[in-house]
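Example 4.3 (complexes with small molecules)
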Amino acid sequence: MEIYLDANATTPVLAQARAAALAAMADTFGNPSSVHGSGLQARALLDGVRATARRVLGVPGGRLLFTSGATEGIQTAVLSALDALRQRRAAGESIPTLLLYGATEHKAVAEALRHWNALLGLGLEPLAIPVGCDGRHDLDWLRQHAPRAALVCTMAANNETGVVSDLDGIAGAIAASGALWLVDGVQALGKLPLRLLERRIDYAPFSGHKLYAPKGIGMLYVREGAPFTALMAGGGQESAQRAGTENMAGVAALGAVLQALESGDVFAPVATLQAHRAQLATALGDAFPGVVFNAPFDTSLPTTLNFSVPGVDARALIDLLDAAGLRVSGGSACGAARAAPSDVLQAMGLPAWQAASAVRLSFGAADSAAFVQEACARLRACGAAWRADASAAAAQPGLEIDAPALRAALRGTPRPLVVDVREASEQGLQPAAGLAAEAAPLSALADALPRWRDLPAETPVVFVCRSGRRSAQAAGALRRQGHANAWSLAGGLALWSAA
Ligand code: PLP
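Answer. The structure with pyridoxal-5'-phosphate bound is encoded below.
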């Protein structure tokens, strides 16, 4: 059974939400713009979900529109704010010059600011608000820069670390400035009270797929009186605020999730989530002694654990956990294909090794106690397997071949067979320089071993990987299968390239 622990990337769709989506496709399938009975039924569904969303968010007034997700909500908010500035400048008014955004903000925010600032020809200055080692915004810095700020963008909770922003502190720091304020509520919805009205937040985008609704549905709240410009023009849907026939299956599913939030009997309360986090943290500590957590628990979402294990790179750890059916990620999902250390952890000033080896484990408020227990058991089993592997590799003398010896062997006969055991994505990013290597990722090694087991005894098989750790495992495995002439490139490709 898969134990999915990557809820900050996306969640499965709640059973009630699936049923609601199916009903919207099969029964209430009308176009809410049609004036006949089918259209009116669809319109009632749309209005009903909007009313639920307003209650859940505590916003009886202002705009509440359905979007395709948070990225679209962010575009609409940024366009609205910047277009208003453009109009003010065109009318001869002098406008503030800074676009402030949190240094750990989701990429969609910084990129939207850059994009619309350039497209509207505003030439304003985007500037990252620094964060402390706890991941929270530097409020003194913000207070200092707020008077020159046109727009301030700060997420409510961070997707990589779970760090919860001090929204009251931010509200205080920018209160006198007149700057517009965008709060990315994606990771906070259903987990934290956002108090949008009380805090006078101008724009708040949300995403359905982070909270058990399907991908392709989201919401944007816009405070009454805050500037608004439609991102899409067309048939006048969403009161001409967002053209395009509505994603009714998505709206219906989101409605079911919002109802579940309102009823309070589907999602676990915060105290339970904190208990689940404590269990997982203990299991991680047992499995990998020396593990460090990269964000303080008391100011983070209880559903996110970002951690690093000294001496173990993120990818190796993710592969190990994946083999046990535990789905976790390194950094954010959007950055998962990149081999770079996490920007978020670097902005927090964490040591390079910690930022480079960070793993994110995030669970959902619908996960049961039994699910968390199973996750803990598997984490402990992974720790035991890891220690067994490490001691087996260390116990095998003469498993390693260094770069000069491999070079010499490659000039001799029989030529060694070189096998790259990194995952395909790593191999694509960093080719094995000068080594004509066969590719066989460690995760698929069991299938590949029989190919080399029966090679002539005098043919060396040399495994290579990034650091020499996975290749040592592979060489050990092939020796155990009976081919004694199996080797691991010492120091891995990192040292091979340097040499
Ligand atoms: N903001 C945050 C904090 C996120 O975590 C994400 C998704 O990763 C987004 C914005 C973008 O959301 P969507 O996938 O709905 O466009």
